[in-house]
């Protein structure tokens, strides 16, 4: 088995797409290992996206990611990281393929509905950012 980390971002939670997105995730063969609902402070959003701290969109991203509730999840499936990136589609929804989560639910490059880890290593770091070890079963 193999795991990835995702969160449903504020635009999609606010837009009422949580159920539809979780349904797509389960129908694609992912098992939900851990799930919660929470809201990031700007400080914690900045920590989560610290790799982007030199990018021009960093301050906006921090504000956006702390603007409402998010739903972090740990997912399990063979080849989880790569298969999940395929399911969500390109960062920019204008370039996301038909049938992907972002094509269906993203509003913009920034408010793009979901996050998906880009490596096994980051999946573990990001999972530990939101979940205690005892929750990760
Ligand atoms: P994520 O890490 O959320 O799965 P990603 O790997 O597709 O997304 P990254 O390049 O890691 O994209 O960027 C992280 C997030 O920062 C994006 O999901 C998006 O919300 C935001 N972002 C990235 N590029 C831009 C941009 N040019 N303008 C505004 N926001 C951006």
Description:
With 137 residues, the protein is an alpha+beta fold. It has one domain (3-39, 70-135): 2-Layer Sandwich (Alpha-Beta Plaits), CATH 3.30.70.141. It has helices spanning 10-14, 18-27, 42-48, 58-65, 80-88, 101-105, 120-130; strands at residues 3-8, 31-35, 71-76, 114-116. A 4-stranded antiparallel sheet has the order 2-3-1-4. α3 (42-48) crosses α4 (58-65). The chain is globular, with a radius of gyration of 14 Å. The two termini are 12 Å apart. The mean pLDDT is 97. Adenosine-5'-triphosphate (ATP) binds next to β4.
Work out the oligomeric state of the chains in this entry.
single chain
Q: Number of helical runs?
A: 7
Biggest sheet descriptor = 4 strands, antiparallel
Order of helices and strands: EHHEHHEHHEH
- Whole-number tally of structural domains: 1
Let me know the CATH homologous superfamily: Nucleoside diphosphate kinase-like domain
Overall geometry comes to globular
- The total beta strand count reads 4
Strand order of the largest sheet: 2-3-1-4
Give the cofactors and ligands. Answer: adenosine-5'-triphosphate
What integer value in Å does the Rg equal? Answer: 14 Å
CATH architecture: 2-Layer Sandwich
Average pLDDT, rounded to a whole number, is 97
Low-confidence parts = none
Key structural traits:
single chain, 137 residues, alpha+beta, Alpha-Beta Plaits, 7 helices, binds adenosine-5'-triphosphate, magnesium, phosphoprotein
């Amino acid at each position: 088995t193999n795991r990835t980390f995702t969160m449903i971002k504020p635009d999609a939670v606010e837009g009422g797409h949580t159920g539809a997105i979780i349904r797509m995730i389960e129908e694609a063969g992912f098992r939900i290992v851990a799930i919660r609902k929470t809201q990031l402070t700007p400080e914690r959003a900045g920590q989560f996206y610290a790799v982007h701290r030199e990018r021009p969109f960093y301050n906006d991203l921090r504000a956006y990611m702390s603007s409402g509730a998010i739903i972090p999840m740990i997912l399990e499936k063979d080849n989880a990281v790569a298969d999940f990136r395929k399911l969500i589609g390109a960062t920019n929804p204008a370039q996301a393929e038909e049938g992907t989560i972002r094509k269906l639910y993203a509003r913009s490059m920034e408010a793009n509905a979901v996050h998906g880890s880009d490596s096994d290593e980051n999946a573990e770091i990001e999972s530990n950012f939101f979940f205690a070890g005892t929750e990760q079963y």
